[in-house]
Input
Amino acid sequence: MAKPIAYIERTKRYYAAQDFAPYQWAQYDETPWQSPNKPLAESRVAIVTTAVPDGSIEKPIRTASSWDIRQAPDRFRTDELSWDKETTHTDDRGSYFPLEALSALADAGVIGALAPRFHFVPTEYSQRNTINDDAPKVVQACIDDEVDIAILIPL
Output
């Protein structure tokens, strides 16, 4: 059996080998999560993903953005992201962007509705950018769309 990858230790060694300052892992004593304040069957649900929404672009998107859920692409651009491309793939959009499953749950009355937009957050290794720029954009978009629950899907 293969041994698990010591990701944190491996990252520390990588940064040291590049002469970077030691990576500062995000750590929070309190989390901003809360329990839903209404039943799931009455809740509007949004998808937030790190999968790049437009496979036709040539330059990577480097800022959070919101996209019309009805125009979600059949495929997302995932080749630039770091994931195990030897043992898995991203050909099955439903495995990392559950639009059809959530739509079926909305049709069945399990969730109240799917939000009109999904939200993209770039794979950004800057805590400052994530906290100061990307997260506030997505939070505001969810407020504007009257979202009750956001499903966060890192890729």
Remarks:
- The first strand starts at residue 44 and ends at 49.
